Amino acid sequence: MAATVTPIDRTTVGDRVAEAIRREIWDGALRSGDRLNQEALATQLGVSRIPVREALMGLEREGVVRVVPHRGAFVEPIDEQTVSDHFELYALVDGFALRKACERADADQLTALAAAYERAAAAEGPDRLQVAVVDARALLHQLGGSPRFRAVARGLAGIVPGNFFEAVDGSMDIARHGLPEVSGALAARDAVRAVHAYTEMMTAQGRQVLAELGRRGLVGAAPDHRPTEPHDLETS
Hints:
This protein is mostly helical. It is built from ten helices and three strands. Strands 1-3-2 form a three-stranded antiparallel sheet. A hairpin with a 3-residue loop joins strand 2 and strand 3 (72-75). The longest helix has 26 residues, at 191-216. The radius of gyration is 20 Å and the shape is elongated.
């Protein structure tokens, strides 16, 4: 009998700190303009300051926080422009992969990709849907991308922490409507229709995220970054 192997958790402590910060932003515990105190975060999360520093640097690259020299790190605003840009970027990046997959993939590969999106559309419950969408997107990036493309795509971090379809009301219905459209277009090797369906789906998901943020009272204007406390990220 083959031994049961437990999958290795490849996330780092810094990754988990970054996810905790994203969740606090999504839950409203951290608001736009709030200062992120490195020492307080380390104490709160039970880690050293090193992974906190790594997390803040990564979140700055993602556009989640802003580091002001000699002053500190602050939560970037979550506003309508930020959210709409985010989902438009997802549509552009994955739209590129959809076009390239239709150009480059052979018949069997494109059939497999269409089937992956069809399985995602049929997935029951937010957990299965999340896994199926992640799997389909990974296959899309494999067939329609290159190492350079995949490096760019990895730079797009989600606004919503955890399970997107569980956190955002109405998002499952949007996926179940849009995913079969993407699948059908891929099966027909119709790149234009696939990109259009995907873009429409991403645009609709962006609207749902904005609605959810509005219900939470978290959508706001950009704050004025003029803190007076010392810079937490200084190494000297």
